[in-house]
Design brief:
By secondary structure, chain A is of the alpha/beta class. Chain A has twelve helices and 14 strands. Helix content of chain B is 59%, strand content 6%. Chain B folds into two domains: 77 residues, Orthogonal Bundle (Arc Repressor Mutant, subunit A); 45 residues. The chains are: A alpha/beta (308), B mainly alpha (129). At the A-B interface, helix 7, helix 8, helix 9, strand 14 and helix 12 of A face helix 1, helix 2 and helix 3 of B.
Chain lengths: 308, 129
């Protein structure tokens, strides 16, 4: 084997090993509905123990991204693998390690609570029946209620209990906060972070309720206008993203020279810009004199500034 | 000290790990946390506030690197028996934001730096007498 070939082989093997260690690897993913791009060229990695908050406005494509990621929908371009296996053809040994709670849970409506969990327990070899018993008792479920007669929030709770009982290595929750009350949400967040911290479970949580994410997320990705606008550790995002106000006299084209510009918005008395700090030297002097260092932003303000 | 004794505001612009770091620094510098005092476990803090345990570990590790905390074998983290210099550094770090605020306000008011420093000295002399 030539030396270049040998190096190439080593390189490919290294990538393969790295992919196996990652819980999720998405590369260049794109999805179109008709002529409309839902998203394009989305790449991200999720490692064991990370809690990734996927943020985005309604209709930004969060659920579609999740469904493509899990192989439930075919992307138009790009690849996704879970624990090194291609999402479109997941072997059973990988499926067992993945638990997904969709936004709307309208399956198995004819079953009662006990029947539902009996059925589910057969799919997952690591099933934790004691956890199910404890969680059902704690949340006051009647074992003989049919799923049909439960509220959407209660049904979602059942599917979340199912997901956690499976002891997954990858937990994917699509808008879990949408129909849960604050008490149930807080309990869920506590459970999610303890799974991530103690069992090295990777968690992906999509939501437009920012306050839940701020507690539990280790990483945040913001899906907007067809792409991942921000994707980083939550602490890095909070420390680096800043907002500044600039007066009316500045032309829109000048703003493009701001290093690390993320968003700009016209206001009644000028501009509001959001940018990443850290490359201050490259700022045009006149702009920097006006903008200063910028003010730090909470995640909610950042979300609004960037996606409004 | 308990997990509940930390005041954590998840929605503040300041990252949660920084909030923890600042609080421990202040409590140690002010003497409320004496050398040898044991900090609540990562698990306790994380569970109490429903926050990511990695965030708490990050804060503790940073404080360990700074010499504010030391890792006890099998017993978590405790306040280090640091030298006096470390305590002085810590006190300077605590006043840094206030100094930055004075600097910013002086700039906004277009006051000469030399004069600001002179007046600050006078203010400090007045208050010590």
């Amino acid at each position: 084997m030539k030396r270049a070939d040998a190096e190439q082989a080593i390189h490919e093997r290294t990538i393969a090993i790295a992919d196996n260690q990652a819980s999720v690897t998405i590369t260049g993913l794109a999805k179109r509905y008709g002529t409309r791009d839902v998203f394009r060229d989305v790449s991200l990695r999720l490692e064991p123990g990370q809690v990734l908050g996927l943020l985005g406005r309604n209709g930004a494509g969060k659920s579609t991204l999740i469904r493509c990621m899990l192989g439930l929908e075919a992307p138009d371009a790009g690849t996704c693998s879970l624990f090194g296996a291609p999402a479109q053809r997941l072997p059973d040994r990988v499926k067992m390690r993945v638990a997904y709670v969709p936004q709307r849970t309208e399956a198995f409506l004819w079953l009662d609570v006990v029947e539902f969990f009996t059925l589910m327990s057969r799919f997952y070899p690591r099933w934790d029946g004691n956890y199910v018993q404890a969680a059902l008792a704690e949340q006051g479920f009647n074992p003989y209620d049919r799923l049909r007669n439960l509220s959407p929030g209660q049904r979602q709770q059942l599917f979340i209990i199912r997901a956690l009982a499976a002891k997954p290595d990858l937990l994917v929750l699509d808008e879990p906060a949408a129909s849960l009350d604050p008490v149930a949400r807080r309990a869920l967040m506590r459970e999610v972070v303890s799974r991530a911290g103690e069992q090295e479970c990777a968690v992906l949580l999509s939501t437009h309720i920012v306050s839940d994410l701020e507690r539990v997320a280790s990483h945040v990705a913001l899906l907007h206008a067809g792409g991942l606008l921000l994707h980083d550790e939550i602490d890095v995002i909070k420390e680096e993203c800043a907002r500044a106000h600039l007066p009316v006299g500045i032309a829109a084209s000048d703003l493009e020279h701001i290093p690390g510009l993320i968003a700009k918005r016209r206001t009644t008395n000028g501009w509001t810009v959001v940018f990443r700090r850290g490359s201050r030297d490259a700022w045009p002097e006149a702009l920097h004199a006006q903008a200063g260092n910028g003010e730090a932003l909470g995640l909610e303000d950042l979300f609004i500034e960037v996606t409004a | 000290m308990d997990g509940v004794d930390f005041h954590i505001q998840p929605s503040a612009p300041e990252p949660i790990y920084r909030q923890i770091v600042e609080q421990v620094r202040r409590l140690v510098a002010g003497g409320q946390l004496a050398p040898g005092a044991v900090l609540p476990s990562v698990r306790d803090v994380a569970a109490t506030h429903a926050i990511n345990p990695m965030t708490v570990s990050k804060a503790y590790s940073l404080l360990e690197t700074e010499g504010v905390l030391e890792r006890l074998r099998g017993k978590g983290m405790a306040v280090a028996a640091g030298p006096a210099a470390a305590a002085e550094d810590a006190r300077w770090a605590l006043i840094a934001p206030a100094l930055a605020a004075v600097a910013r306000q002086a700039r906004e008011l277009e006051l000469a730096p030399g004069e600001v420093i002179a007046r600050l000295m006078r203010t400090m002399e007045d208050t010590t007498e």
